[in-house]
Amino acid sequence: MKPTHEHFLKLIYDHEQSTGQHLIVNLDENSETGMEDGKTLSKLGLNVNTFDEDVRYLEKKGFIHNDPYSTSIYCISLTEKGETYVENGFKHQSDIPQPTSNFNISGVNFNNSVVGSIGNNNNISNNDISISTNASLSELESLIATKPAEDQELLQELLATLKSIEHSAKPVKRGFLAKFSGVIEKYTDILTSVGKFFVGIFAND
After folding, report:
1. Block means of pLDDT (10 residues each) for the chain, length 205 residues?
2. What is the structure's pLDDT at 82?
3. I want to staple 63 with a disulfide (CB 3.0 to 4.6 A). Which of 58, 108, 196, 205 is the partner?
4. What does the DSSP 8-state code read for residue 85?
C-alpha cells in the first residue's frame, strides 16, 4: 500500500475518532459543502489528481466505504477492516506475530499450538475449547501401543497417572510429571496428546 493511502486512512480514522462522524470531502475547491465538517482536498492535504483513484482502490480493497452525496461530495468512512488496519500500525492482521501462550508442567513445556486455542487474555474458557479427556486418553493409549518396548513401562505408568487425575477431584501436585518429561518430549504425538488432555481438564474446571 502506498504511503498516500495510509495517510488518507489515518485522516479518516482521526476524523471519526474525534467527531464520531464520517468524513465529508468536497472536490470543488471553490465552494464548501454547506455541511458540518465538510472539507476540501486542499484543506485535508490530499492530492486532487489521485484522490478519486485512491478512493476506488481503498474501497475495492475493503478499507473504506464511500456513500457520495453527489459527483463532487464524498461521504467516506472506514470499514472494520480499515479501522483495524490503522490501529495495527498499517499492518494486516495476518502479518502481526501472534503471542505463544506457554505453560510448564514438570519441565515439559506446552504451548497453544500444541494444546489448542487459548482464549482472550490467555484464559482457557469453555466457550473456546471443547475437548473430551476420554477421547484424549483413548488417543494416547493407541499412540502408546505403537511405541518401542523399552518405553512401554514408563508410558503405561504415564497413562495410568492421567487416568487417575481424570477420576480424582484432588488438585494436581507440582512436579508430578517430572519423571515422564523425557519420554514425553521424545515423541511429538505423545506430547500433543498429553497437552490435549490437560486442556480438557482445565476447560472443564
Report:
1. 90 91 85 59 87 93 90 91 90 65 48 39 38 70 92 92 77 75 89 84 63
2. 92
3. 58
4. H
Nearest-10 crossing angle of helices 149-167, 188-203: 0
Check residue 99 and report its DSSP letter: P
Contact in structure between 13 and 78 (CB atoms under 8 Å): yes
Whether residue 8 contacts residue 52, with contact meaning beta carbons closer than 8 Å, is answered with no
User: Do 187 and 143 contact (CB within 8 A), yes or no?
Assistant: yes
- For 139, the grid coordinates are 488417543
CA angle 139, 142, 145 (to 5 degrees): 150
| 8 Å CB contact between 184 and 110 | no
Residue 124 — left, alpha, or beta (φ > 0 → left; ψ -120 to 50 → alpha)? beta
